[in-house]
């Protein structure tokens, strides 16, 4: 059985920005949304969101989908034939958390590129292309993540994107951007979403992460690509009816919750700075660019999963364990600066307690 839900009450939730709940004002916008049949193109609120996304991302056409996962999977299935390869960083969400999607749905395999916090160079990409031949998978699509989730929220620079997409184009390889948190990268770097999206055949952004909408994502590309995307959306059961109820939340988020992402970034940096001083924690706060804080435990008597469980049980603070000694904390609109300070304090105190208990146990034994 796969465990579901937290068994303990949560006071401060830094597990993910997916846990954000629609605000009162967002719910008002949802309650008053005009709706129709989305499959027929007759839902005005969904059409409004799609038009807004087209403009924001600078693409010819866009489509509203239930999840970011579906955006990735539809794109891969359209860019690849069975037996093709998808070039991704070795920590990509589509590889680590959607591992079965592309093989099952597109018949494609992953060709992971060893990256630095989710980012790789044109030379690394070129080296990863490998030899051509009948027995080799054809490199069909380059997929990058902006910003990289498991890379600790690290942003690709516009130059980096320009250089890797140029290599892809030179090899007739399609380009895809997983922009689950694209607007975090936009706010952090000052580069426009349009500029980041321009070199890509397909791009998407998630409305349900730090933007605070309950669900949904928007996939964009040229009109032919989106028309083909609609075929798969229909086939896979992603076509909807009165989706305007949730699309209105997405529109509200794009109009009201983008600039405030800067607050989440400041809170993430603060959290990193507060944790960096602790002897059992290794993190360089200057690597924190957006709302994700990835840090390692050093000399800690317990593993990250054990510590994270204790933090939740004893302090009501939730973070995520990513491996035996790595922890991820994500800031978002439902946690304020005071909450971040409390979370850092709780974790540092818990580490001190864990460490001294361990040391005194050792003394008793020797
Ligand atoms: C969350 C996430 C996804 C999946 O999006 P869902 O809307 O949860 O399906 C894909 N890629 C990245 C980088 C993500 O963080």
TrEMBL record:
Residues 13-295 form the Aromatic amino acid beta-eliminating lyase/threonine aldolase domain. It comes from the Bacteria. The modification N6-(pyridoxal phosphate)lysine is found at residue 209. GO terms for molecular function: L-allo-threonine aldolase activity. Keywords: Lyase, Pyridoxal phosphate. InterPro entries: ArAA_b-elim_lyase/Thr_aldolase (IPR001597), Low_specificity_L-TA-like (IPR023603), PyrdxlP-dep_Trfase (IPR015424), PyrdxlP-dep_Trfase_major (IPR015421), PyrdxlP-dep_Trfase_small (IPR015422). The keyword Transport does not apply. One of its GO terms (cellular component) is cytosol. The keyword Hydrolase does not apply. It holds the Pfam family Beta_elim_lyase. Its cofactor is pyridoxal 5'-phosphate. One of its GO terms (biological process) is glycine biosynthetic process. Belongs to the threonine aldolase family. This is Threonine aldolase family protein. It comes from Paenarthrobacter ureafaciens.
């Amino acid at each position: 059985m796969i465990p579901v839900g937290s068994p303990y009450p949560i006071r401060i939730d830094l597990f993910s920005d997916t846990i954000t709940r629609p605000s009162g004002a967002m719910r008002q916008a949802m309650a008053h949304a005009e709706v129709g049949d989305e499959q027929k193109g007759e839902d005005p609120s969904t059409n409004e969101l799609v038009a807004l996304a087209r403009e924001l991302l600078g693409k010819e056409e866009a489509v509203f989908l239930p999840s970011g996962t579906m955006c990735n999977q539809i794109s891969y299935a359209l860019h690849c034939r069975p037996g093709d390869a998808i070039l991704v960083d070795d920590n990509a969400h589509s590889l680590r958390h959607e591992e079965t999607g592309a093989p099952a749905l597109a018949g494609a395999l992953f060709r992971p590129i060893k990256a630095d916090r989710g980012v790789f160079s044109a030379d690394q990409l070129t080296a990863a292309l490998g030899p051509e031949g009948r027995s080799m998978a054809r490199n069909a699509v380059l997929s990058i993540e902006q910003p990289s989730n498991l890379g600790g929220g690290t942003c690709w620079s516009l130059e980096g994107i320009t250089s890797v997409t140029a290599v892809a184009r030179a090899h007739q390889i399609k380009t895809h951007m997983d922009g689950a948190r694209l607007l975090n990268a936009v706010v952090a770097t000052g580069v426009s979403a349009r500029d980041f999206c321009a070199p890509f055949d397909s791009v998407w952004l998630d409305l349900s992460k730090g933007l605070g909408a309950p669900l949904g994502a928007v996939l964009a590309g040229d009109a032919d690509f989106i028309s083909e995307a609609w075929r798969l959306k229909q086939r896979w059961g992603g076509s909807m009816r009165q989706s305007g109820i949730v699309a209105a939340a997405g529109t509200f988020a794009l109009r009201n919750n983008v600039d405030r992402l800067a607050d989440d970034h400041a809170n993430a940096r603060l959290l990193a700075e507060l944790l960096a001083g602790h002897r059992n924690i290794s993190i360089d706060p200057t690597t924190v660019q957006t709302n994700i804080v990835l840090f390692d435990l050093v000399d800690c008597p317990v593993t990250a999963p054990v510590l994270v469980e204790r933090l939740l049980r004893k302090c009501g603070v939730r973070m995520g364990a990513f491996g035996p000694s790595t922890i991820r904390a994500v800031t978002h609109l439902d946690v304020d600066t005071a909450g971040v300070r409390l979370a850092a304090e709780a974790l540092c105190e818990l580490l001190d307690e864990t460490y001294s208990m361990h040391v005194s146990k050792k003394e008793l034994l020797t």
